[in-house]
Amino acid sequence: MKYPFKEYVQQQDSALFDVIERFPLATFFCKSEDQTHICHIPVSLCKGSKTLFGHATGSNPIKHFVGTTVDIVFRGPDTYLSPNQVEGLGLPTWDYVTVQGQGKLASIEDYDKQLEVMGHILQAFEDKRNPWQLTAVPEKRLKSMCKSLLFFEIKLEALSGNFKLSQNKTAETRAGIADLLSNTNPEMRSYYE
C-alpha cells in the first residue's frame, strides 16, 4: 500500500507555497549517524528560487548540519471530524494539510547577505502598516547580534504535500464538512473549495 494515498498528494507549487507562507514555523529533521535532532524554526520563502531563508540561535543543534540535506515539515490546519457532526461520514476521522520538503542547509556568512535575509524575513512577517525596521538597532549591536546567529538558506530539492481532505467521501458529505468548518475552523474550511 502506498501512502499517502494518491488523492491526498499535492504537487502544485502554488498550493504548497501557500501553506509555507501561512504556516512558516518549520519542523526540521536533522539526521546524524546516531541521532535525529528535531528543531522548530520559522522560515521565509522566496518562491522564484524555491529557497527558504531563516536564522537560529548559535546554540541550536541545526548548526551541526550545515552542508547536509535536511527534511522539513510545515503543518497546516487540521480538524477532527465526527459522524455526529457530518452526515455520511461513517467513522470519525482527522483531516489535515501538511507540506514536506528537503534540501541542503547552507550557512550565510556574509554580513550584507545576512541583512538581506533579515529584510526578507521582516517583509514576510512584520505588520505592513507599522513594520519594525532594522535601522532601529545601532549598527555595532546589529553586527554583534548577527555574529551570534546562524543565518541559513535551503534550496528546496523536493517538495510535496499531503492534503487529507476527505476526498474519499461523496460531494454531499464534503459539502457538509465545509459547512461545519465555516463556523468551527474557517482556516481549514478554505481547503475544501
From TrEMBL:
Superkingdom field: Bacteria
SUPFAM superfamilies the UniProt entry points to: FMN-binding split barrel
Family matches, as InterPro entries: Split_barrel_FMN-bd, TR_PAI2-type
Stored Pfam families: FMN_bind_2
PANTHER family: PROTEASE SYNTHASE AND SPORULATION PROTEIN PAI 2
Descriptive protein name: Transcriptional regulator
Organism per entry: Pseudoalteromonas luteoviolacea H33
